[in-house]
């Protein structure tokens, strides 16, 4: 490995199922070393993880980076959004973290929306109408179902906050991740006292919101990580805001991310406030906004369908009339937390490959339906759609997005964009640059462009019709007997 041209920084992506670390040359964006380690998520009614696994995975990923990590002068953590981490007075978890895709708090979400003025009031105050993914609903669920846990909780953190605090010893977060909690008011960029009072959460339990470009702290010397004492620690942020930094996004460029969840988002200079709840009005990590729509079921759900059919994930065949809504974990967009997967239009001549293509179509339909709501009204609709995430490598995903969107699709060559965005944030601490400008200097969005094809309106119309007709089934709460 040749020598770096500038100082080294570390960017971390602590995602739902693994933690990745990149050591990056701050001058060129070249990845000098990398590491990855897994962690587990519970199955069943809830989705939970032990936060200590995230720390162990971070330690292992950095160990794999070798000496390069020791030479880094700044580090930043990007992490999965919305998760509720409850800590005791010693900073240890009092229970496993409730993750973003744990939808047990759907009743609490509905009640909170009703009790605090309805959807429009929520959108105006916080930028979003909270669903069961949002942290505030998880705290309300915890208070109702595990009051002893609440009594022993001395600090409430998000996943990236937990890791940052273990590095620095200080409780901090950033505006990007805080905006996904439901208790951070985007109108005032501060914690919302009325919301906190309603759910019985003492604001003293929450971390300080660090400003973009501010140093969150320095690495303390009470751990086994390879960093030197005094290494700068950036604020970090949520995974989607980190990926936006990693792409160097400018306003008006749409992104579709295909991971465990699916997201579509764009940077905006205007504070979003969608009373329908389709678009979450998140803040980004450097002073603008990141209107975003998210589905719970994306690559994991489609891979599950492929496994049930005994097919490789690329073994799709052109569809006929079958429609498959792959809502295996309930769904967030559309807001159907109790839904399960639904298949309609099965015939004697329907093939397994056609069913798999129908699963892709069902997953992409939900995301594209929110695309126009995410983009500002004056955005250029011919701008290529940036396709990122693990699914972006798959030909079936690429062609499905291309066919159903009718837009040109660009596939950035850079991988691990969340970790790269975190690295760009760390580099910005050293250079004084906007992290998005750092990423543009690194040319992270470079990649092939697939030209636009005619939009498949008939498939979109058919899926929308099935979704509408099946509403009573999809909205029905499951029988728990």
TrEMBL record:
<dbReference type="InterPro" id="IPR006000">
    <property type="entry name" value="Xylulokinase"/>
</dbReference>
<keyword id="KW-0067">ATP-binding</keyword>
<dbReference type="InterPro" id="IPR050406">
    <property type="entry name" value="FGGY_Carb_Kinase"/>
</dbReference>
<dbReference type="InterPro" id="IPR018485">
    <property type="entry name" value="FGGY_C"/>
</dbReference>
<feature type="domain" description="Carbohydrate kinase FGGY C-terminal">
    <location>
        <begin position="312"/>
        <end position="427"/>
    </location>
</feature>
<comment type="function">
    <text>Catalyzes the phosphorylation of D-xylulose to D-xylulose 5-phosphate.</text>
</comment>
<dbReference type="InterPro" id="IPR018484">
    <property type="entry name" value="FGGY_N"/>
</dbReference>
<keyword id="KW-0859">Xylose metabolism</keyword>
<dbReference type="Pfam" id="PF00370">
    <property type="entry name" value="FGGY_N"/>
</dbReference>
<feature type="site" description="Important for activity">
    <location>
        <position position="13"/>
    </location>
</feature>
<dbReference type="GO" id="GO:0004856">
    <property type="term" value="F:D-xylulokinase activity"/>
</dbReference>
<keyword id="KW-0547">Nucleotide-binding</keyword>
<dbReference type="InterPro" id="IPR018483">
    <property type="entry name" value="Carb_kinase_FGGY_CS"/>
</dbReference>
<comment type="similarity">
    <text>Belongs to the FGGY kinase family.</text>
</comment>
<keyword id="KW-0119">Carbohydrate metabolism</keyword>
<dbReference type="InterPro" id="IPR043129">
    <property type="entry name" value="ATPase_NBD"/>
</dbReference>
<dbReference type="InterPro" id="IPR000577">
    <property type="entry name" value="Carb_kinase_FGGY"/>
</dbReference>
<feature type="binding site">
    <location>
        <begin position="81"/>
        <end position="82"/>
    </location>
    <ligand>
        <name>substrate</name>
    </ligand>
</feature>
<protein>
    <recommendedName>
        <fullName>Xylulose kinase</fullName>
        <ecNumber>2.7.1.17</ecNumber>
    </recommendedName>
</protein>
<feature type="active site" description="Proton acceptor">
    <location>
        <position position="239"/>
    </location>
</feature>
<feature type="domain" description="Carbohydrate kinase FGGY N-terminal">
    <location>
        <begin position="9"/>
        <end position="246"/>
    </location>
</feature>
<keyword id="KW-0808">Transferase</keyword>
<dbReference type="Pfam" id="PF02782">
    <property type="entry name" value="FGGY_C"/>
</dbReference>
<keyword id="KW-0418">Kinase</keyword>
């Amino acid at each position: 490995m040749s020598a770096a041209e500038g100082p080294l920084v570390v960017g971390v992506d602590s995602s739902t199922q693994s933690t990745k670390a990149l050591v990056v040359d701050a001058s060129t964006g070249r990845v000098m070393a990398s590491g990855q380690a897994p962690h587990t998520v519970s199955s069943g009614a809830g989705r939970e993880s032990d936060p200590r696994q995230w720390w162990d995975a971070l330690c292992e990923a950095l160990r794999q980076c070798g000496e390069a990590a020791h030479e880094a002068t700044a580090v930043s953590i990007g992490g999965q959004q919305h998760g509720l981490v409850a800590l005791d007075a010693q900073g240890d978890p009092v229970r496993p973290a409730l993750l973003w895709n744990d939808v047990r708090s759907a009743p609490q979400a509905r009640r909170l929306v009703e009790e605090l003025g309805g959807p429009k009031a929520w959108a105006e105050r916080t930028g979003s109408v909270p669903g069961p993914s949002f942290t505030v609903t998880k705290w309300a669920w915890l208070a109702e179902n595990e009051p002893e846990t609440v009594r022993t909780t001395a600090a409430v953190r998000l996943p990236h906050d937990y890791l940052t605090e273990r590095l620095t010893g200080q409780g901090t977060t950033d505006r990007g991740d805080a905006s996904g909690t439901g208790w951070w008011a985007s109108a005032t960029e501060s914690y919302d006292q009325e919301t906190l009072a309603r759910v019985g959460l003492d604001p003293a339990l929450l971390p300080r919101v660090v400003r973009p470009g501010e140093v969150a702290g320095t690495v303390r010397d009470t751990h086994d990580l390879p960093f030197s004492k005094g290494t700068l620690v950036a604020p970090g942020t949520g995974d989607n805001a980190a990926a936006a930094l990693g792409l160097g996004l400018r306003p008006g460029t749409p992104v579709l991310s295909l991971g465990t969840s699916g997201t579509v988002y764009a940077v905006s200079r205007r504070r979003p406030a969608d009373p329908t709840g389709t678009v979450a009005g998140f803040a980004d990590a450097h002073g603008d906004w990141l209107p975003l729509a998210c589905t719970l079921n994306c690559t994991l759900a489609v891979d599950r369908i492929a496994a049930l059919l005994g097919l490789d994930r690329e073994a799709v065949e052109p569809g006929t009339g079958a429609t498959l809504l792959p809502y295996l974990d309930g769904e967030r967009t559309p807001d159907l937390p109790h839904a399960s997967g639904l298949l309609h239009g099965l015939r004697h001549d329907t093939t397994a490959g056609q069913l798999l293509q129908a699963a892709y179509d069902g997953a992409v339909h939900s995301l594209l339906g929110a695309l126009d709501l995410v983009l500002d009204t004056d955005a250029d609709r011919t701008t290529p759609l940036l396709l990122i995430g693990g699914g972006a490598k798959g030909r079936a995903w690429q062609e499905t997005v291309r066919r159903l969107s009718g837009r040109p699709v660009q596939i950035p060559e850079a991988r691990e964009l969340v970790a790269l965005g975190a690295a760009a944030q760390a580099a910005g601490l050293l250079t004084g640059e906007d992290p998005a400008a750092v990423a543009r200097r690194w040319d992270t969005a470079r990649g092939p462009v697939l030209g636009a094809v005619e939009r498949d309106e008939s498939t979109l119309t058919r899926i929308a019709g099935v979704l509408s007709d099946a509403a009573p089934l999809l909205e029905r709460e499951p029988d728990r007997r």
